[in-house]
Records
---
Amino acid sequence: NAGVTQTPKFRVLKTGQSMTLLCAQDMNHEYMYWYRQDPGMGLRLIHYSVGEGTTAKGEVPDGYNVSRLKKQNFLLGLESAAPSQTSVYFCASSPSRQGAQGANVLTFGAGSRLTVL
Amino acid sequence: AQSVSQHNHHVILSEAASLELGCNYSYGGTVNLFWYVQYPGQHLQLLLKYFSGDPLVKGIKGFEAEFIKSKFSFNLRKPSVQWSDTAEYFCAVKAYSGAGSYQLTFGKGTKLSVIP
């Protein structure tokens, strides 16, 4: 009963390095999201996807790219990491954005803590 | 753009004290409302949700929330907190944002510290 799995859990990068965070869900959810969590800022949506092959920008998309090549996976990429991207990143998924009541409930992964030096 | 305000950044209570965390939002249409909880070192989990019907919603672990449409509020309550309730609590609002699109907005969170 994995739910939403994020890898890696921790990563330290130097400024300018690139990396990819992987999110995998086994619930056959249509929607997937990437959030960043910073102290006093709550959760801010970076990018999201409404289905395989689709992505859209959220509130803070600059400096990030995403891909949803398979329904169960949602990748978050940093092409050139900056210290401002030091954060905890959470992936989430939901069945869909409309429809039955449960459709709007997000299931979150355990988080990935990224430090950019 | 819609916004969600959580009035308290950090609340400190003694065990058995009553809790009320405020949440207000700025959207006038139909909304879905959520409270999520994040225990130390863990991911967010759904505490309770409101979609329609009875505005008093009961969630897990004795928590409840009341939707007051006229006040655009969805405050979280618990009559008697326990040390294990120490966590960060996030209010979230999902509302129609136009062109067939819905937007989920989180508040900045309220840290609750319960002293034994």
---
Amino acid sequence: QVQLVESGGGLVKPGGSLRLSCAASGFTFSDYYMSWIRQAPGKGLEWVSYISSSGSTIYYADSVKGRFTISRDNAKNSLYLQMNSLRAEDTAVYYCARAQRYGANWYFDLWGRGTLVTVSS
Amino acid sequence: SYELTQPPSVSVSPGQTARITCSGDALPKKYAYWYQQKSGQAPVLVIYEDSKRPSGIPERFSGSSSGTMATLTISGAQVEDEADYYCYSTDSSGNHGVFGGGTKLTVL
């Protein structure tokens, strides 16, 4: 079954850290680019970060650059998001998504169900 | 930073045609993609590369793009099409993904 399953969400205090994981199954994980996308409660979707299949190319949204780190372990079919210096505005459901690339265009064709991160004192 | 602009809401009666627009300066050179998100669920891709429909997506969903505007059209909208719809593209550098603000489609 082709799927992505996120884990690691929870309640964390402002300034704290959290590491999200995404387990992929049913497809050859190492062939695909991957991304994290988030959605604050009652708000729209926001792209967060992107990593190439080998991990050699990484992009971040300006809102998280310098605080979040995306990584992957192809041997474990897993994607990660290390989140440091968390702020209240980082509160959101975080989705893991498989990315398809066509030239300079890339988009998401498979999404997980998401994991909720709440930043509050 | 790059922005994609969508109307906040669109409302149609069942069987009518719903059109949701998305404007962005880079769209003449970048593809537009459309996602459907029903309440409490993860987004689902309904249109990719401006006008292509993934397998399993009903034929009533179609997409087009001209100049700086992309359009998602739902011909003969059904009650089950009620959802939030998001356009998506990349900026001119190709280094950032961008979602539109989302459009709430009401079918009643």
